[in-house]
Write a structure and sequence with these properties.
Order of helices and strands of chain A: EEEHEHEHEHEEEEHEEEH
Largest sheet of chain B: 7 strands, parallel
Strand order of the largest sheet of chain B: 7-11-6-1-4-5-12
Shape of chain B: globular
Mean pLDDT of chain A: 97
Strand order of the largest sheet of chain A: 9-8-7-10-6-1-4-5-11
Number of helices of chain A: 6
Structural class of chain B: alpha/beta
Strand content of chain A: 25-35%
Strand content of chain B: 25-35%
Low-confidence stretches of chain A: none
Distance between the termini of chain A: 58 Å
Structural class of chain A: alpha/beta
CATH topology of chain A: Rossmann fold
CATH class of chain A: Alpha Beta
Order of helices and strands of chain B: EEEHEHEHEHEEEEEEEEHEHEHEEH
Helix content of chain A: 25-40%
CATH architecture of chain A: 3-Layer(aba) Sandwich
Oligomer: heterodimer
Number of strands of chain B: 18
CATH architecture of the largest domain in chain B: 3-Layer(aba) Sandwich
Distance between the termini of chain B: 50 Å
Shape of chain A: globular
Radius of gyration of chain B: 20 Å
CATH superfamily of the largest domain in chain B: HUPs
Number of strands of chain A: 13
Bound molecules: flavin-adenine dinucleotide, adenosine monophosphate
Number of domains of chain B: 2
CATH class of the largest domain in chain B: Alpha Beta
Radius of gyration of chain A: 21 Å
CATH superfamily of chain A: HUPs
C-alpha cells in the first residue's frame, strides 16, 4: 500500500501572530514557518506504517508557494520516500482554500492510487478543519477524522476518534482518508544524516494548472482584524482577597 | 431564503444547548428548518420543534444514520440541499466531521466556526488560534457554515414548529460504528457550563486532579484541562480546552497550573471573568486574567474550595 501525506507550510506555532495594519491579513514576511504540527503527526504515522511493513511507500505532497519545498524536505528527512510540490500561489500571504487543495489532491490520488491518505485534522493558520473531509467527498471514499489511534489490517482500518463526548471507534474500508489528532503519536526529529539524505530524495514540482484545477478563492477576504483585547486585570494577594473580588463581581 | 440546520443529536437525544445556539446564529439568514437525523431521532425532532425561531423540523430515522457517521449523514443533507441557501450546524466534532464533506459534495467552500453573521453572504471567523478575526464574503450559491456555539446565546423555548419525516439517502456503506467510550458525569457539560475550572500540567498527576474536581463541584462547574494535562493522562481528551479542543466562554473560568499558551487561550479567552492560579508570576495566563493569584496550587486550591 502507498500512503499519501499532504503537508502544509504554516506559521510556526510558537510565533506571535501580527495582523497587518492595512487589515489585509496576517504578516508572514520574514516569519518562521514550519510544517503544520498535525501533519508532522501524519508523516510520523505513515513512516511507522512503513516500518511495520503495512505500507510500501510514503509520498508527501504540499500545495502552495514554492517555499513549501522546505516543508517537503522536512517530511523526506523524517522518512518519506518522495515528494510532490504543487505550486499554486506566488505570494506567501495567499492561502489556497481547502476546496481547491482537496481538488488538487484528488487528481494526485487518481495518479498515485494510494490506499491511504493521512491528513492533519486542522491547519493551525486558517483553522479550517476541512481538507480531509472534502477530499474524501470528492473521491467518494470513507473518512475517519480526528484519529488518536489507527489500526490498519488488510483492507480495513479501525480508527479511534477524539470527539466531544469522549472517544468513538469506527471501522472504515480502504482506500480511506484519515485525519490525525494530537495524541496519535509523537513525531520524531529528523537526524542530521537523514536531513542530508533527504536532499537527494525525489521532489517533483508541478503547478495547479497541470492538474487543471482552478484555485481562485470562493471566500473573499473582506478584512482581517485583531481580536478584541481584554481589559487589564489585577493580581490579588491572597485566597481571601480572591474570594472577596469574586463575590464583588457577582461571579460566585 | 431558507436555512437547513443540522441538529446535534446524540443517541436519539437532542443536544439542546448547541442546537439552540445555532438557531440564534441562523435567525438573520431566513426561515430555519432543523434536521434531526439518527437511528432514532423523532424525540430529538419533537424537542427541536419547541426551540423559538424554528419554522419546521425534518426527522430522518435510519440505522445508517446512527452514530452520525459522516458519509451517510452528508448524503442525507445533500439530498435535501436543493431547497436551502444556507446549510448550517453548531461547530461540534460531529458537525465538523460532516459539514466539509457536504460542502465539497455541493462544490462550495465551508465556513468553519463562524462567530458572527454580517449579512447573508458575509461571516466573521477566528483564524490563527483566535489571534486574528477574519471577515469573509462567500461567492458560492450555497453557504455551508458551522457556528462557534460559545459566541451565541441559546434561543429560548416556546416554539411549536411542524414536524415532517424524510427518508435517508442511499447508504454509501463506507464506514461502520464499533464503539463509543463516553464518560458519564453529573457535572454540567463543558461548552454550556456557567463556570469552568481547568487544570494544567502544574497539577502534576491524575490523583491530584481531584483538587480541580473538588473546586469544580463546590461551584457546580464543569472541569476542563490543558492539552498538557490531557497528554499526560491527568484528564480525558474531551476535557481539553483550546484551539484544537473545546471553545468555552463561561461567566467564570478558573485556570489552575496552566501557563497560558496561545493554543489554550484560543479556547477560553472570551470567558467573562478569568481567574488564574499559578506559582510563576511571569506565566502568560496572567495577561488575560481578571484576577491573578500567584501561589502554589496545592495550598491555594483547597483553601479556595473551603472558603467559597
Ligand atoms: C497544534 C497544537 C495545538 C494545540 N492545542 C492545544 C489546545 O487545544 N489546548 C491546550 O491547552 N493546549 C494546546 N496546545 C499545547 C500548548 O501549546 C501548550 O503546550 C499547553 O497548553 C501547555 O499546557 P499547560 O499550561 O498545562 O502546561 P505548561 O505550559 O507546562 O504549564 C504548567 C504551568 O503550571 C504552573 N505550575 C506548576 N506547578 C505549579 C504549582 N504547584 N502551583 C501553581 N502553578 C504551578 C507552571 O508555572 C506553569 O505555568 C497545542 C499545541 C499545538 C502545537
Ligand atoms: N496547502 C496544503 N498543502 C498540503 N496539505 C494541505 C494543505 N492545506 C491543507 N492540507 C492538509 O489538510 C489538513 C487540514 O487542513 P485545513 O482543512 O486547512 O484545516 C492539513 O493538516 C494538511 O494535512
Amino acid at each position: 500500500m502507498k500512503v499519501l501525506v499532504p503537508v502544509k507550510r504554516v506559521i510556526d506555532y510558537n510565533v506571535k501572530v501580527r495582523v497587518k495594519a492595512d487589515g489585509s491579513g496576517v504578516d508572514l514576511a520574514n516569519v518562521k514557518m514550519s510544517m503544520n504540527p498535525f501533519d508532522e503527526i501524519a508523516v510520523e504515522e505513515a513512516i511507522r506504517l512503513k516500518e511495520a511493513g503495512k505500507a510500501e511507500e510514503v509520498v508527501a505532497v504540499s500545495i502552495g508557494v514554492k517555499q513549501a519545498q522546505e516543508t517537503l524536505r522536512t517530511a523526506l528527512a523524517m522518512g518519506a520516500d518522495r515528494a510532490i510540490l504543487v505550486v499554486a500561489a506566488d505570494d506567501v500571504h495567499t492561502d489556497v482554500e481547502p476546496l481547491a487543495v482537496a481538488k488538487i489532491l484528488a487528481k494526485i490520488v487518481e495518479e498515485e492510487a494510494p490506499g491511504l491518505v493521512l491528513c492533519g485534522k486542522q491547519a493551525i493558520d486558517n483553522d479550517m478543519n476541512a481538507t480531509g473531509q472534502m477530499l474524501s467527498a470528492l473521491l467518494g471514499w470513507s473518512q475517519a477524522t480526528f484519529a488518536s489511534d489507527v489500526d490498519i489490517d488488510g483492507d480495513t482500518a479501525v480508527v479511534t476518534r477524539e470527539v466531544d463526548g469522549g472517544l468513538q471507534t469506527i471501522k472504515v474500508s480502504t482506500p480511506t482518508i484519515i485525519t490525525v489528532d494530537l495524541r496519535l503519536n509523537e513525531p520524531r526529529y529528523a537526524s542530521l544524516p537523514n536531513i542530508m539524505k533527504a536532499k537527494k530524495k525525489p521532489l517533483d514540482e508541478k503547478t495547479a494548472a497541470d492538474y487543471g484545477v482552478d484555485v481562485s478563492p470562493r471566500l473573499e477576504i473582506v478584512k482581517t482584524e485583531e481580536p478584541a483585547e481584554r481589559a487589564a486585570g489585577i493580581v490579588v494577594g491572597s485566597v481571601d482577597e480572591l474570594v472577596a473580588k469574586l463575590k464583588e463581581a457577582g461571579a460566585v | 431564503m431558507a436555512v437547513l440546520l443540522l441538529a446535534e443529536v446524540n443517541n436519539g437525544e437532542l443536544a439542546l444547548d448547541a442546537t439552540a445556539k445555532a438557531v440564534t446564529a441562523s435567525k438573520a439568514l431566513g426561515d430555519v428548518t432543523v434536521l434531526a437525523a439518527g437511528a432514532s431521532a423523532a424525540a430529538a425532532g419533537e424537542a427541536a420543534a419547541k426551540i423559538d425561531g424554528v419554522a419546521k423540523v425534518l426527522v430522518a430515522e435510519d440505522a445508517s444514520l446512527g452514530h452520525r457517521l459522516a458519509e451517510s449523514t452528508a448524503a442525507l443533507i445533500v439530498s435535501l440541499a436543493g431547497d436551502y441557501e444556507h446549510i448550517v450546524a453548531p461547530a461540534t466534532t460531529d458537525a465538523k466531521n460532516v459539514m466539509p464533506r457536504v460542502a465539497a459534495l455541493l462544490d462550495v467552500m465551508v465556513i468553519s466556526e463562524a462567530t458572527d453573521v454580517v449579512d447573508a453572504n458575509t461571516f466573521v471567523r477566528p483564524i490563527y488560534a483566535g489571534n486574528a478575526m477574519q471577515t469573509v464574503k462567500s461567492n458560492d450559491a450555497k453557504k455551508v457554515i458551522t457556528f462557534r456555539t460559545s459566541t451565541f446565546d441559546a434561543a429560548g423555548e416556546g416554539g411549536s414548529a411542524s414536524v415532517e419525516t424524510v427518508g435517508a439517502a442511499a447508504n454509501p456503506g463506507l464506514s461502520e460504528w464499533v464503539e463509543d467510550k463516553v464518560a458519564e458525569s453529573d457535572r454540567p457539560e463543558l461548552t454550556s457550563a456557567g463556570v469552568v475550572v481547568s487544570g494544567g500540567r502544574g497539577v502534576g498527576s491524575e490523583e491530584d486532579f481531584a483538587l480541580i474536581e473538588k473546586l469544580a463541584d463546590k461551584l457546580g462547574a464543569a472541569v476542563g484541562a490543558s492539552r498538557a494535562a490531557v497528554d499526560s493522562g491527568y484528564a480525558p481528551n474531551d476535557w481539553q480546552v483550546g484551539q484544537t479542543g473545546k471553545v468555552v466562554a463561561p461567566e467564570l473560568y478558573i485556570a489552575v497550573g496552566i501557563s497560558g499558551a496561545i493554543q489554550h487561550l484560543a479556547g477560553m479567552k472570551d470567558s467573562k471573568i478569568i481567574v488564574a492560579i499559578n506559582k510563576d508570576e511571569e506565566a502568560p495566563i496572567f495577561q488575560v486574567a481578571d484576577f491573578g493569584l500567584v501561589a502554589d496550587l496545592f495550598a491555594a486550591v483547597p483553601e479556595l474550595t473551603d472558603k467559597l
